[in-house]
């Protein structure tokens, strides 16, 4: 229960839980129920019907029944414009749950990612050429991955240190049945293929998790330093322009901080490509005069030794609105320095 206290203890309003009906999310629901009963907190479960499978409505009703038995509020959310693409479904799912949670006064959404998911993520990112920062895997706490829909919502992963088999044992001991989504067996998806490769290799999983634990420690330190830089060396004007003092930052941290700021000012959900940010960082750090640039929907220029970022009209995302950008900046800074 320590993970729930650590990740949810200071959050206002009801604690939201994403529950699909699979074993991971149902076990999260049960464990959250035990914690909330002890801590005196209110819970609200959300199930998203993507309208991509005819069984989804029955699965949502199955979750609703379990919630009713546990005395937990439940709401089924429906994606009204379904598209059979995982990335779009994920974005829609997070947007629907964030909006529903905010409407109830909540600010913390729990997800049921496990240590098995961490191992799969490690191998997938390694294949894609990720740096140590990405190989550290999913974080226990993060800003909502959709913006501006996720404004004001933090996500948390209290069972990230538990394996899927442990969670299923928990459900079996309580007589709770879970749903197996057929997409979890579809080898067309990379995660499913990686999962099959890891199956039966407990020793490999243990080595990956040990490596990730060390990388997580380094990543927390790196983000703490970036958060302090954001607090001390980034200034905003009244029109949404951010003024950055990049002097003294080690090159790798400069690239990471610059990418984050481009993401925020440009109103995008992810930073620009790493190679493009590296090239820009090189130009800003070099001896040649910097004549200005554009990247990720952001205008970049120098002013009195600092670097100024402003949203590029017609290119920046909807979240480039000055108030939204500043709110996102504050959320990221607070997360990085541990003030959440």
From TrEMBL:
EC top class named in words: ligase
EC annotation from Swiss-Prot or TrEMBL: 6.3.4.19
Catalytic reaction annotation: cytidine(34) in tRNA(Ile2) + L-lysine + ATP = lysidine(34) in tRNA(Ile2) + AMP + diphosphate + H(+)
Keyword set, alphabetical order: ATP-binding, Ligase, Nucleotide-binding, tRNA processing
Record carries keyword Chaperone: no
Record keyword tRNA processing present: yes
Sequence ranges assigned to domain tRNA(Ile)-lysidine/2-thiocytidine synthase N-terminal in this UniProt record: 16-196
InterPro entries in the cross-refs: Rossmann-like_a/b/a_fold, TilS/TtcA_N, tRNA_Ile_lys_synt, tRNA_Ile_lys_synt_N
Spans traversing the lipid bilayer: none
GO biological process, one term: tRNA processing
GO molecular function: ATP binding; tRNA(Ile)-lysidine synthase activity
HAMAP family registered for this protein in UniProt: tRNA_Ile_lys_synt
Name recorded for this polypeptide: tRNA(Ile)-lysidine synthetase
Native organism: hydrothermal vent metagenome
Upper lineage: unclassified sequences, metagenomes, ecological metagenomes
